[in-house]
Amino acid sequence: MKYVLNIIQPDGPPPPPERLDPIMRDVYAFMAELEAAGARVWNAGLAPASASTMVRAKPDGEVELADGPYAEGKEHIGGLVVVEAADLDGALAWAGKLSRAITLPIEVRPVAHGG
Amino acid sequence: MRAAVEQAFRQCYGKAVAVLTRVCGDLALAEESVEDAFAAALERWPQTGVPPSPIGWIITTARHRAIDRLRREATRDERHATAALVAFPDHTEEASVRDDSLRLIFTCCHPALAPAAQVALTLRLIGGLSTAAIARAFAVPETTMAQRLARAKGKIRDAGIPYRVPEPPELPARLGAALAVVYLIFNEGHTATSGDALVRGELCAEALRLGQHLVELLPDELEARGLLALMLLIDARRAARTDAAGELVPLPAQARDRWDRDAIGLGLGLVHGCLRADRPGRYQVQAAIQAVHAVAPTAAATDWPRIVALYDLLRTLDASPIVALHRAVAVAEVDGPAAALAELEALPLDRHHLWHAVRGDLLARLGRTAEARAALAAAAARTDNAAEQRHLARRLAALG
Questions:
Q1: Residues of B in contact with A115 (CB under 8 A)
Q2: Nearest Cβ partner of A110 from B160, B166, B170?
Q3: What is the pTM of this model?
Q4: Which residues pair with A28 in a beta bridge?
Q5: What are phi and psi of A25, to 5 degrees?
Q6: Nearest CA of chain B to the CA of A35: how many Å?
Q7: Quick check: B160 contacting A, CB < 8 Å?
Q8: Is position A33 within any domain?
Q9: Number of structural domains in chain A
Q10: Closest approach of chain A CAs to the CA of B96, in angstroms?
Q11: pLDDT in tens, B255-295
């Protein structure tokens, strides 16, 4: 099964380099481990949520644009990693490692179809 | 005959669902087929008599029903499951039934499910309680409980919650989650925040059965033994815990000759085994504390210094303020109410009725009657349990 690991990131500027650098080293090590295990499907780090735009088609077919993000709040998805795992426990184990590396909570969401 | 089928149902339902889930890989299909098999038993057993192995009969019948169901609704995806069901031997090894039961327990108690869903699933799938009975026990409408169960089963399927015993590195945490579910069921039956009294007794019995089951499945896990001992020792006091009018009787006032000596004997045996192994865990230590109460011939003869020492050990394993609250009750018996009150005041438990109730008692013993009265009133305002409220009202009245 495929699972999306959503990285839940607080809005605002990134931490200073002295904090961020060791975190990024750990994240690269995690990605290398994921790749070596053949479990990495796809991954992306996202621009700040303030850079997002809402696009909504109305019933008459006209498309409405608005400043994003969609969800209010102080935290948004800051990046995602799609992993292949035998079952939820496999995905949770990767999510635990990623959370430890990136020091942020991870939402694990199964992929229903596609991929 | 109906009674024989009902007895078989309680003993076999969870095991049969567990075996069928492994064979066909689908929890919903397993449940439906096992229910079909019990319906068939109700029809057939009155004529044929109860078969020598009721569980074997149920599993075989459920397997045939599952095959029928799959063939009726056959799609390509399900051919594999059908093949597995057809190939499955008619004779079920006891050891494999045991392994399947354990797998199903860990699926039901998976931490990816909400605690309320874990409890409901465990009672439904392992205990074989009806959705209506579970709903009554938790004082929610049956439709709400049915939705909760359906949502939980949906998550098991959609999220790919595995059907297997966790790997050794995960096992302690996952076992902890399973034990917590069993203890939650027991506490709901024992202290009962709400709900039907009759069904609550059934919850305690079910929790004891699950606890016994986990000890049999994982004989080396001391915490499973500790939890079983803890539940046995608390449940042994059930008859003495309420008086003829159904009112609560606190531990010091209980008639100890009404305690269940057989249950106490079993509990003490488990506690002694744990002490010998010397790998303490929170359930084992709580059981040891209950054991100290169980062996005291009178309330006055209770070895309170030993209980305080056990709470000190428990605090190293469980930092929750609730543990500190219970420790303060023991401290009052060793160092007096003033010392206990000082410890109590530091705890962030304003929302808990028990904190106010204990505080009220300590204040009363210190002669601070007005404050005691306010504390007992605060306690009564924080519990929904009618028996508990009447008990607090009697204590308020006794203050004069």
A1: none
A2: B160
A3: 0.83
A4: none
A5: -60, -45
A6: 22
A7: yes
A8: yes
A9: 1
A10: 22
A11: 999 999 999 999 999 999 999 999 999 999 999 999 999 99
